[in-house]
Design goal:
By secondary structure, this protein is of the alpha+beta class. It folds into two domains: 35 residues; 76 residues, no CATH class. Helices cover 45% and strands 29% of the residues. The chain starts with a helix and ends with a helix.
């Protein structure tokens, strides 16, 4: 029975370390690595989608215009302007995604821009 005490104590400490490591990676590192969308006075990242290792697509509003950017370790690439009619007015101003239509419209806009780039 004497040997059970230190074993239980080691198990408790191990569980505490694992819980703290999980919390640290979710909250501290996640917010530092771009977990929150960037918002400035005139520029807002409305949505970002990971498309590969260290590669993302970003839907950015600059003033009243919307742009699609590709981000990779080598830099940013402007993939083109997104027509505003593809997004609802409420979603363009708030960046919300309440009913899923922004994701569908974003996919349509991405297809249209990629088709234009192929020509």
């Amino acid at each position: 029975m004497k040997e059970l005490g230190p074993l239980l104590w080691a198990l408790l400490v191990t569980c505490l370390i694992l819980a703290l490591a999980y919390w640290f990676t979710r909250h501290v590192v996640g917010s530092m690595a771009g977990g929150k969308l960037a918002r400035g006075r005139r520029i807002t990242v409305l949505e970002q989608v990971s498309v590969g290792k260290d590669q993302r697509l970003l839907l950015v509003r600059v003033g009243e215009r919307l742009y699609l950017f590709g981000a990779a370790p080598g830099g940013f690439t402007n993939l083109g302007e997104v027509p505003k009619e593809l997004l609802d007015d409420d979603e363009t101003t708030t960046g919300g995604n309440s009913n899923g239509t922004m994701s569908e419209n974003f996919a349509q806009a991405l297809r249209r821009i990629l088709e234009q780039r192929k020509r």
